[in-house]
What we know:
Elements: H1 2-35, H2 38-42, H3 44-54, H4 59-81, H5 90-128, H6 131-137, H7 142-181, H8 185-195, H9 198-225, H10 231-260
Amino acid sequence: MFETLTAPLRHLGHVTINAIWRLGFASRFLLAILLQSGQSFRRLNLTIREVYFAGVLSLIIIVVSGLFVGMVLGLQGYNTLSRFGSADALGALVALSLLRELGPVLAALLFASRSGSAMTAEIGLMKATEQLDAMSVMAVNPIARVVAPRFWAGVISMPVLAALFNVTGIFGGYFVGVQLIGLDEGTFWSQMQNSVDLHNDVINGLIKSLFFGIAVTLIAVFEGYDATPTAAGVSSATTRTVVTSALVILALDFVLTAFMF
């Protein structure tokens, strides 16, 4: 009877201690990346190659998703605003929704699903096939050679992808509102111009995306580096990357929004 009552408490304690241990290990891992980042900047070809894989190859899903999100915002925004006789404010609604919240958050979620999971799988597979151990034997630091370029590639790519998501989303809202529904084009753009502030909306949105990029990329490379060197271990690490990144993005969004707005 006593064992039955204490088993859940032991399990909770084990999960809590393991979470604290992993958080501490991730903090040390981030410090190691920053200390070993010199090679990433001295050999820019490593980082540029990873920017291509993490950023350029994500353009299709970012642009297409941004376009459709903007089109949905245009339809839903017009339907809501027209009830209050404020349909002319559609441009401001689309722009502010994308620049402040939807652009950075959705772009980060897509980036985590596409590039973050790929980073985890790649590093985890290198660990499973003992490529990281082989680098250490040859006096090559795997964090400097493998992890740091991918980390900085993600940090660089994320704000650019978020900006492209915003641009295509605004174009999608313009297409629905002006071309399909028939709102005045000048009113659409002027309302947007009068409502959007460079610092409060555009810059703060890019700052959000930068924090999201740091968080997502750190989770991705950490999970790959810490993965169990088996097929099941790499698969589990990839799943943890996507789930943890999504939760961290949403939590960070709340914290950053509270401070910014």
